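Something for you to look into today, if you have time. Could you write out one complete protein record for me, on any chain you like? Leave the record below and I will have a look.
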Amino acid sequence: YNVPSRTGVDLLPESVAQLAPHPRIIGIKEAVTEPERMSALLQLRSAQFAVLSGDDPTALRALRAGADGLISVVANLVPGLMAELCRAAVDGQMQAAQEIDAMLAPLYAAAASEPNPIPVKAGLAMMRRMNDLLRLPLLPLSDVYRPALAAALRHARVPLHGALAA
């Protein structure tokens, strides 16, 4: 999993190329968003080495370029829609994939408003899938981000309960 924003270290494609042939390394989840990065990694794809997107906002672009799949944050909130997006992209139904991607764009942003899994857990609580209780060191989603998260869920046609449903 290459996520330099969290680890402070960037696993460059040159290093991945050296690691890819190892029999216990079967793929990479890439969260760097530049298309050049995904392009370089896709050159390493093989039957033994998969390249997966790890960034929701650029996942459709990665899938169109040939990525093997997606490990998604937003799929924790809307698994069916993310599965539809991936299926449409793989099947070459780009208009459908783009429509789903556009519907989910506000949710991508809202899910990134604070560190994962804080917004996801808040969204699940808004959907009444769990209680809005977190254990330290996690803190509840800041009140300033809650309206945008609720609006993004409604934009993705997710039914909400209580005061958030309006």
